[in-house]
């Protein structure tokens, strides 16, 4: 009854608000002059039911009103609503409120097309969608969508975003539940203080209502993390519920979450299959140390089991048996972890299933445990000395001991038994781990710079370049390498390349190359003008004024560039520019020139030691970029004797 009353109130508010199209449009256009559209209202009503007969039931009603402010309304004509077996649409209604004098005329969407939605990197999932087209979309029109869902997995949190990519005049979430149900919740993202919570109780029913008004747009930006990092939103868990006076835990604590997760792996690979044992012995034959054996098994799975994402209901959270993965020779993260766990167990080593969220998610088990914290599974191996190794089977070119950047800094929930777990944090690599050293020797030939180079790559940089080479033909290696380590302009051409043993992923990758850089030398009278900054990392990086979204960094890195230029015969030694640098954690660079054996040597190091630059660091970042780009402008002048 409470939900019905609230629905009626909201409906009356909307009808009252939308009664003068011209005035409505003028009001919102004046308030949001640079926006193409604004949500006048976004609301969600959640009703949690608890019955002895049917158990927990969750019904969700969404109601969105979008007012078009732009002259070009066509981009807003297409509508889509996603659903799955765990979040199934019961009813959908979409319509356009078209301005008609002093009132609006309602035009219903009549055709809804049901489609299967699947990402390009997913083999199969159960996500579907209703797609439709709003009729008579125009400036001043209001696009309305009313959808009713049934959530069939009460272990998953209820989520609602108060801020989205367009501004919102009013957003509200109402959750009604019986006193026999206990909930927990937490706000995430920026500007969460604007959300106000009111609680009320009528009889045995609680109602929690979260509301916010005048919410700005949260549009993405260059190198931004996923929207969950900055869009204000809430997650709500059902912590427990009562049945026949007994409390049934759901997800109210980390222990509850672990029990839920563990139930998904209980019984998987409970015994070592003879086929698995034979394969493990074959892979490790001739290797003495346990850690070396595990590294060899890890490499075998990386090379021989193809990664294919599978997201299909419970199949998206339950690992398949190792024997099935081996037979198919493909699987998702859970399947590859299952095979790793079985093979490593077969040699008697200590290995566990582990859940982890990639860096695409901002959530932590220690802050708010929920099924939304993790979206990935890995294996965790402990060597006889107790050292922990995180084994991500979805990677292909990371040797054991090198953690892929997608899981660095993230909490990892490690299964140690039915009632025992470890909560570990994957270390963030040091900049030195991902070092790139690029050294070139060059000489002037008229207006062209020619020479050779040696590049050494480690860690994540090495894995990325090996992956790039693996998808290319050998004849295209020069282009691949030039894209990976670009120089000052696209006229820089690699004329020859030698890539050393791509199969040895545990070693530093070495690349030798020769190059020509035509039209790079400026000649004026009897003088040459040469800029030795062939490598100009971060030259195009900028920070928009008033940017409030963090900048995501691929991985901590240390980039060293050395350019040695022979002084042309008959020319005097030039004046050397002053050294330059910047050092404000986590950003650092140093640049200097020296004279060595009739050559000028430029030595430069650029270091960044973080995964995420917060807005509080933007001023420092802008100084870093300004100083670095000023140093890039330094030019040597060679004059004839």
List keywords for this structure.
single chain; 641 residues; alpha+beta; Immunoglobulin-like; C8orf32 fold; 3 domains; 8-stranded mixed beta sheet; 37 strands; globular; disordered N terminus
What does this structure look like?
By secondary structure, this protein is an alpha+beta fold. The protein has ten helices and 37 strands. The strands form nine sheets. An eight-stranded mixed sheet has the order 5-4-9-2-1-11-14-13, with helices on one face. Helix 4 (274-283) crosses helix 7 (333-346) and helix 6 packs across helix 7 (333-346). The model is unreliable at 1-18 and 120-124 (pLDDT under 50).
Mean pLDDT: 93
Question: In CATH terms, what is the fold-level topology of the largest domain?
Answer: Jelly Rolls
Helix content: 10-25%
DSSP helix count? 10
Neighbour order of strands in the largest sheet? 5-4-9-2-1-11-14-13
CATH C-level label of the largest domain: Mainly Beta
Describe the structure concisely:
The chain is built from ten helices and 37 strands. It is α+β, with helices and mostly antiparallel strands.
SSE layout:
Blueprint: H1 2-17, H2 21-31, E1 37-51, E2 55-68, E3 78-83, E4 87-100, E5 103-108, E6 113-116, E7 122-125, E8 128-133, E9 142-151, E10 158-161, E11 168-178, E12 181-188, E13 196-202, E14 205-215, E15 233-243, E16 246-249, H3 254-265, H4 274-283, H5 290-304, E17 306-307, E18 309-311, H6 322-328, E19 330-331, H7 333-346, E20 350-356, E21 376-382, E22 388-391, E23 411-417, E24 420-425, E25 435-445, E26 448-457, H8 459-470, H9 477-484, E27 493-499, E28 509-517, E29 522-524, E30 527-530, E31 551-552, E32 557-566, E33 580-584, E34 587-596, E35 599-608, E36 612-613, H10 618-632, E37 636-639
Parallel strand pairs: 1-11, 7-18, 17-19, 25-32
Antiparallel strand pairs: 1-2, 2-9, 3-8, 4-5, 4-9, 6-8, 10-15, 11-14, 12-15, 13-14, 15-16, 20-21, 20-23, 21-22, 23-24, 25-26, 26-28, 27-28, 29-30, 30-37, 31-36, 32-35, 33-34, 34-35
């Amino acid at each position: 009854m409470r939900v019905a009353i609230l629905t009626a109130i909201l409906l009356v508010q909307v009808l009252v608000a939308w009664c003068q199209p011209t005035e409505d449009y003028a009001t919102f256009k004046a308030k949001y002059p640079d926006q193409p559209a604004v949500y006048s209202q976004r609301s969600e009503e959640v009703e949690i039911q608890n019955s002895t007969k049917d158990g927990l039931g969750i019904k969700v009603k969404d109601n969105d009103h979008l007012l078009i402010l732009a002259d070009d309304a066509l981009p807003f004509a297409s509508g889509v609503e996603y659903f799955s077996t765990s979040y199934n649409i019961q009813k959908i209604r979409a319509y356009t409120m078209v301005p008609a004098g002093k009132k609006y005329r309602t035009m219903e969407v009549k055709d809804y097309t049901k489609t299967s939605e699947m990402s390009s990197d997913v083999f199969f999932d159960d996500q579907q969608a209703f797609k439709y087209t709003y009729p008579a979309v125009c400036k001043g029109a209001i696009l309305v969508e009313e959808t009713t869902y049934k959530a069939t997995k009460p272990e998953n949190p209820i989520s609602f975003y108060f801020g989205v990519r367009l501004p919102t005049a009013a957003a509200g979430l109402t959750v009604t539940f019986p006193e026999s149900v206990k909930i927990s919740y937490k706000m995430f993202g920026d500007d969460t203080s604007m959300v106000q919570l009111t609680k009320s109780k009528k009889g045995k029913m609680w109602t929690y209502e979260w509301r916010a008004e005048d919410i700005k747009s949260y549009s993405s930006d260059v190198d931004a993390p996923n929207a969950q990092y900055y869009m204000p939103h809430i997650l709500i868990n059902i912590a427990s519920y009562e049945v026949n006076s007994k409390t049934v835990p759901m997800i109210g604590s980390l222990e509850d979450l672990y029990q839920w997760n563990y139930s998904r792996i209980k019984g998987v690979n409970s015994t070592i299959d003879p086929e698995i044992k034979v394969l493990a012995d074959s892979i490790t034959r001739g290797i003495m140390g346990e850690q070396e054996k595990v590294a060899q098994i890890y490499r075998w799975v990386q090379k021989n089991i193809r990664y294919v994402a599978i997201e299909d209901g419970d199949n998206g959270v339950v690992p398949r048996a190792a024997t099935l993965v081996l037979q198919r020779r493909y699987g998702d993260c859970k399947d590859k972890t299952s095979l790793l766990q079985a093979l490593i167990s077969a040699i008697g080593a200590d290995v566990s299933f582990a859940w982890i969220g990639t860096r695409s998610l901002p959530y932590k088990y220690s802050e708010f445990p929920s099924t939304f914290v993790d979206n990935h599974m890995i294996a965790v191996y402990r060597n006889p000395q107790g050292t922990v190794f995180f084994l991500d089977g979805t990677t292909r070119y990371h040797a054991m001991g090198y953690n892929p950047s997608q899981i660095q800094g993230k909490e990892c929930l490690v299964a140690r038994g039915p009632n025992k777990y470890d909560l570990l944090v994957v270390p963030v690599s040091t900049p030195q781990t991902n070092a790139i050293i690029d050294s070139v020797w060059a000489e002037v030939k008229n207006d062209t710079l020619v020479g050779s180079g040696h590049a050494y790559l480690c860690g994540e940089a090495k894995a990325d370049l090996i992956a790039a080479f693996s998808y290319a033909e050998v004849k295209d290696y020069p282009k691949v390498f030039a894209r990976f380590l670009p120089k000052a302009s696209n006229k820089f051409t690699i004329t020859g390349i030698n890539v050393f043993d791509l199969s040895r992923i545990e070693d530093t990758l070495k690349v030798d190359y020769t190059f020509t850089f035509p039209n790079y030398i400026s000649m004026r009278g009897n003088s040459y003008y040469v800029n030795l900054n062939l490598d100009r990392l971060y030259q195009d990086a900028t920070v928009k004024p008033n940017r409030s979204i963090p900048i995501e960094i691929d991985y901590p890195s240390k980039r060293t560039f050395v350019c040695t230029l022979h002084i042309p015969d008959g020319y005097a030694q030039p004046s050397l520019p002053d050294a330059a640098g910047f050092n404000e954690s986590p950003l650092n660079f140093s640049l200097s020139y020296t004279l060595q054996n009739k050559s000028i040597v430029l030595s430069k190091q650029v270091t960044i030691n973080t995964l995420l630059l917060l807005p509080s660091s933007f001023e420092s970042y802008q100084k870093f970029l300004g100083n670095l780009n000023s140093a890039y402008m330094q030019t040597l002048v060679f004059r004839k004797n």
